[in-house]
Design goal:
331 residues, alpha/beta, two-stranded antiparallel sheet, 11 helices, 13% strand
């Protein structure tokens, strides 16, 4: 599954889901993960929205899923929690089957093997519900083994239910990324994945490491393990879109096209979250689709959206990506 063309990833799952469930997502300690149990039809519909608007890749709604979270906030036991994670992956499969049936009936062709279902593997900090996925502070006191043991349960549940790859995403610190990549190389040698960091500005991860250093460290680690072909891409997500080009230039700006590290990017809309007033500034946002050519030029192989991006935003990104892919073919 080496990525030859640029692929369209879905958008903000919790954002688009509000179309189906209203604004009852933000502020819940389980965030959109509660609806995996309480409203599976809304999960399927949300996946379908993205597929019908041109997504090549959908992420499972497992970012905030954890055994601890489900036991604490939904009073499930461990086995029920794991089964709910597996079932969440199955909801993505149901959406994919429905979409493929729609395409078949409409006589629309879909590339072989697509759409891809990729498991969302959010950071250790997400289940702490204290904002630490945006600081990475836990890297300073939680041992790597504790972090990988915590991740392993959800990763295995997702793999058992069947996914094409893992999205190791919103990772705020190099330590967690390295620990996960080492675990995947050691224990899951056949599993493909990408690693997307959380960055606080145009240069640094949330925890303070330089993005280019962190991405190079992961790429070098994969080279040592002879495993670069397992990694679909390295990149960023849940960041302000204006940070992306400088971040990518810092990593790939001086490399020849053949030598670039493959990149993944799915930023927020550009709105800023205010604790009192919620999301602010949509009217000033540059459409994400406008950035597609510059990001693809710098090596982006997967482009989508994160918080505050809807299915319509993905449709526009998809149109820009298809134009780019056509141009590349012609050249």
């Amino acid at each position: 599954m080496g990525l030859t063309r640029v692929l369209v990833k879905d958008g903000g799952f919790g954002t688009q889901m509000t179309v189906h469930v209203g604004n009852s997502v933000d502020g819940d300690p389980l965030w959109s993960a509660r609806f995996n149990a309480t409203n599976p039809a809304a999960i399927i519909s949300t996946h379908l929205d993205f597929l019908q608007n041109g997504a090549d890749i959908i992420l499972t709604n497992t970012y905030q899923s954890s055994v601890e979270g489900y036991m604490e906030y939904m009073e499930l036991d461990e086995e029920q929690s794991i089964e709910l994670i597996r079932n969440t992956v199955r909801l993505a499969h149901i959406a994919k089957e429905r979409y493929l049936t729609e395409c078949y009936q409409a006589q629309l062709s879909v590339p072989e093997g697509y759409p891809l279902i990729i498991a969302s593997i959010g950071p250790y900090g997400a289940h702490l519900h204290d904002g630490s996925e945006y600081t990475g502070s836990y890297a300073d006191y939680v041992p790597a083994k504790e972090i990988t043991d915590w991740h392993r349960v959800r990763i295995e549940a997702c793999l058992e239910a069947g996914v094409d790859a893992l999205a190791i995403e919103t990772i705020p610190c190099l330590m967690e990324a390295e620990a996960l990549v080492e675990m995947l190389c050691d224990d899951y040698p056949d599993v493909k994945f990408w690693v997307a960091f959380q960055c606080k500005d145009e240069n640094t991860l949330a925890h303070g490491e330089t993005f280019a250093d962190a991405a190079n460290a992961i790429w070098d680690l994969l080279a040592e393990r002879n495993a670069q072909d397992k990694c679909l891409a390295i990149g960023v997500n849940c960041v302000h879109p204006k940070f992306v080009t400088p971040l990518f230039k810092s990593l790939n700006g001086d490399r020849d096209a053949d030598d670039m590290i493959p990149l993944v990017v799915y930023p927020n809309s550009g709105e800023v979250y205010d604790v009192v007033n919620g999301w602010q500034g949509r009217e000033h946002c540059v459409p994400l689709a406008n950035y597609v050519p510059e990001w693809a030029q710098l090596g982006a192989k997967v482009i989508g959206g994160c918080c505050r991006t809807y299915a319509r935003d993905i449709r526009h990104i998809g149109e820009a990506i298809r134009s780019w892919n056509k141009l590349k073919k012609l050249s």
